[in-house]
Amino acid sequence: MRCIAKHQTVLLAVVLMAAAGPVACGGSGGAADEARTASGGPPQPRARVDTDGLRGVGRIAVVAADETGRQDVHVLDGAGHLRNVTRDSAMEADVAWSPDGRRLVFSSDRNGTLDLYIADADGGAVRRLTDLPAAETNAAWSPDGTRLAFGLEGGNEEQFAIYVLPADGGRATKLFQRAGCYAGNPDWSPDGERLTFDVDCAGGGEIDVYAMAADGSAVRRLTRAAGDDGGAKWSPDGRRIAFHSDRGPAVYSMAPDGGRVRRLSSRLTFEDAGAAWSADGRAILMASGSGSDLYRLDLGRRKPRSVVRGLDISAVSVARVPTR
User: Fold this and answer.
1) How far is CA 299 from CA 112, 215, 253, 280, in A?
2) Is 5 in contact with 155 (CB distance < 8 Å)?
3) Domain at 4-319: CATH code
4) What's the whole-model pTM score?
């Protein structure tokens, strides 16, 4: 996802995971029935889930809205079970799993501006991590679970930066900022030594993928095509980086040095939405913009498969732990 102030409105989060006491959506295989509303609770998003299409993917987090526009964190497992885990009036966004699949980090405006919060996977034990006079978005866990990289958006277009802070809270350290440039959407390499992130110094329409060392040094531009290249996500084995591009709108992958670019999808892309590799590295889960279904793109097959229908999905995250 790109920085919300420049490119999109605040998103809410829906999480695909196993959870206790979920709302039943239907059968154990194939396409599940539509989700039903929990008794006495707010309306649940109405979704149809292709449970076969989610097999082997891992635990998934998506950003979406329910039928009333309410923005909350929900949980949905591969059997088609849906549950709201925040149930507040705030807007939650940019959810990401901890490496062990036990915690979530997300942005919320429950205290006026978008700050980072951490919670257990069922929505319990919510704790505020940041309290800055700016918006903190798109947090990403380091592979060892000790740090969070995130984008900070200040009061105007010239105040964008990439920061890192301890996952349990503490002082945030600036890693990257360039005057007049948008910077956001960080993602860690699996070995924790590098970060990729989006940079746009042209004022819109010229986003490129950059990489740097985890301490902010050795900044390098990886893409140089005309138009937008962004949303970079490392494969679990660290050998490929998936990204969206409008060089011929599609999903592409490249080597960590920016070379060996390959087109992965026919036309569908995840610009303004998000993508995540499956836990086994054999597929990419993605949403293709506001109002989209969730798609599965198996490597070697250019035609994605719709696996969750009927949700206003705008982003996705997959925990790299086995599905329970």
Assistant:
1) 42, 32, 10, 11
2) no
3) 2.120.10.30
4) 0.84
